[in-house]
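Forwarding these from the shared drive since the link keeps breaking.
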Amino acid sequence: MEATYIVDCGHHTLKYAGLSKRNRKAVQVLIKERRSECNAYVTDEERFRQCVPQLLSGELRSDEDLTLILLLDTHHSQKSKATLLYACFEQFGCKKVCLHYTACTGLYAAGETSGVVVDLGYAGVQLTSVHKGAVQTAISTRLSSVGTRSLDDELHRLLHGSATEETLRLVKTHCCSLTERDEMVPELTLPDGSVFPHDDLKRSELHRATKALLYSTTSSVPETLRMVYQKHSIRFSDSTSWVQLGGGSLISGVDEALTRAMAHPLCRHSAKQLHLKDVTHAPVSGGIILSQLNVFKSMCIGVADYEEYGPDGCLHMQVVDAR
């Protein structure tokens, strides 16, 4: 039997889906998420090499042939990809491997193959230009001084370093906002029974902390998004779409800040914002769509090709970016 797994191994959580063909008529789909057990500062290939075996050991049956779709960051290096291919075939025992990008499959989930993707992740914000399913690395960029981790650091400072992960999640969901107001923050009962805020914390203070998600002393996500979109629209005049991914997109006021930036009069074309049902799992959903297309088989690297050409040779056979 054949089993296909789509894996989006983020710095904070591991999101994946398993498609198992138990018989010719039915396809069972399992979509799950788990906390990444890796340190957020390890390299991308090391994170995959640690997390994927743990995932497969509890999910994959011994009689199933494994096809693995790994969703990568836009600027994943060729050397890192070769290392991942080696691990997939030599360590994980894969029969087929497809290396693709979270930005591309996120667009697939929105029904498009071209556009600009802003991924508000834990360890940074990735802004990617995609045209006809291929990432355009030359006009894409990554901002490492912003993101959800920066927001968490600011909240730890406000809460005097005593906040648990569940506390941070509740505060970000119910209290954080990029819309500045002067009234008091509404009280929130935390899992340990305590009440947030512990003192007279004003919403304006929480607003300043929340800005760390999009702004730092050296970076501005709205301005960078507008710049990437302008370059994208000049190069690909028929592509006007953009979409948000990542857990940071769920913070109140983020959508308004980015939409306001995209309405700037310097933009050559009127930008069309795409909306997703689930911004955190959209890349995996797009990976499921990709795995059902006829073209998917040609995008995979088989074990026979790997044995003949090696990891470096196989990478030249699979063109999914503009490099």
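-- next protein --
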Amino acid sequence: MTSCKPLADLVAECIELAKLVPSSHNCQPWQIQWYAQSVPFDGRLQIGFDPDNIINALPALQNEMWMSLAGFSAVLINLLEASGITCVVSSPITAGTNNATCEHPYILEAQLTYNPERINHARFNQIKSLLEQRYTYRGALTGNKKLAAHDRILSTVLWHSPNIEWQSIEGGKHLKTAELVARFASQDFKHAKAWRETYAFIDFSKTPNKEAERGFNIQQLMGPMSLIKRRAHQLLLNPLSMRVLAKLGVADSMAQVLSQLTAQSSQIICLCQKSTQSTFDWLCAGQKMIEMWLQATAQGLAIHPLSVLLQHPEAKAALHEQLGEEHHPLFIARVGKSDADPEFIAQFRYRAALPRILKQH
């Protein structure tokens, strides 16, 4: 046992929980470099991308990678601090600059010092519980309850921009957003490269796949399914099948179903920026996204991102026009009460093994 083992154990425990934050297709594009130091309760970590697990079939997915990594970083730092670890944080990503996802070896560096007397069990347990409860659900999100702003759950803010704010899409704009979904959601299936990438992440097994470390089970999104229904979806959603079925209108029909779910959802929320976005802004957006998701979970609400409206240029332009000139969309989602069984959904929470994420030096 090394002199730094107590701190290293705490870091590993916090990383295991932080892996529960959302990422596109649950690709988990993060990697951590850990540097133990000679002082027993000191260490240094760097958070960056794992280049082998970045999805990139569409240019807009680079923005989602920034958001995913920022959300992971924000949760990890807050968990570490709640564990009694003082984090002195710095980032090479500055306001107004644009970077490729692999341009920097890391997006955040933290010097850690463990102070056992500063442990905040209540804060740690709150974040832990909400991460374990949080899930994405593609089914109906109904009810009259709306997401309301409460005290911050992630009290430490890593990146901040005053020009990024949440907007609740109400009334006629709610229905118009559903119409945009009907108009554009089929592009998810019609873009051959993007759909091949998505399909590779879908698991169609009945029970949790013990070998799966990334991706998602079809039942995690749509609820329990019989063998026949799972096999039918596996066949119909196959990229080769979809290439033919899309020409027969199947993709458009699937878009109509999502449009109806969007129209019936209790709320649509959108994270907006007043001007065009830089890499720094996408990091700010990722931090705001995970804070919102945890807030929704704490209020008994589920989330389903409407990513198709941001991933394709024509769809994003139409959404921007609807929201208004000063509201550039960064993230949009349906919100509402889910009828899913949380325990059933939770069993499919696939996470990459710690050695694949944590690199010790």
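The radius of gyration is 20 Å. Residues 141-346 form a domain with the NADH Oxidase fold (CATH 3.40.109.10).

- D.
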